[in-house]
Design a protein that fits this description.
By secondary structure, this protein is an alpha+beta fold. It has one domain: 2,3-Dihydroxybiphenyl 1,2-Dioxygenase, domain 1, CATH 3.10.180.10. It has 2 helices and 9 strands; from the N terminus they run ββαββββαβββ. The strands form 2 sheets. A 5-stranded mixed β-sheet has the order 1-6-9-8-7, covered by helices on one side. Strands 2-5-4-3 form a 4-stranded mixed β-sheet, covered by helices on one side. A hairpin with a 5-residue loop joins strand 7 and strand 8. The longest helix has 12 residues.
Length: 124
């Protein structure tokens, strides 16, 4: 179990094969396809908790950097377990560090090199 339970919003753009990207996200994050439209080039993936994320194919003239000012964050109750899982599955991953907000985190990259982050769940 990878321990990921929530995605902190946003659309992840896909340059290549959206089906391959969909399979990768479903495998590593416990997501299920909630809606898919080849015509629109979009797939909505859902967690059992109801949180969802969207993968969208890029247009032929669309350009996107793998890193931007937007951080895509996946929340997990056990950051170390999630880190170990991703490393064991050959996913490029940084070391665990404390971010500027004082929250333990690490960065990792999807199949296309999009920078993503994992954060430890905040307890209130």
């Amino acid at each position: 179990m990878n321990g990921f339970k929530r995605f902190d919003g946003g659309i992840i753009k896909i340059r290549g094969d959206r089906k391959k990207a969909t399979d990768w996200y479903c495998k590593h994050f416990g997501l299920k396809v909630g809606w898919d439209s080849p015509e629109a080039g979009m797939t909505v993936l859902s967690y059992p908790s109801g949180f969802a994320m969207t993968l969208e194919s890029m247009g032929p003239d669309e350009k996107l950097e793998s890193e931007s000012n937007t951080r895509f964050c996946f929340e997990t109750a056990d950051l170390h377990e999630a880190h170990t899982y991703l490393v064991a599955n050959g996913i490029k991953t940084s070391s665990i560090y404390t971010n500027i907000a004082g929250v333990p985190t690490f960065d990792f990259y999807d199949l296309e090199g999009t920078k993503l982050s994992a954060v430890e769940a905040r307890h209130s």
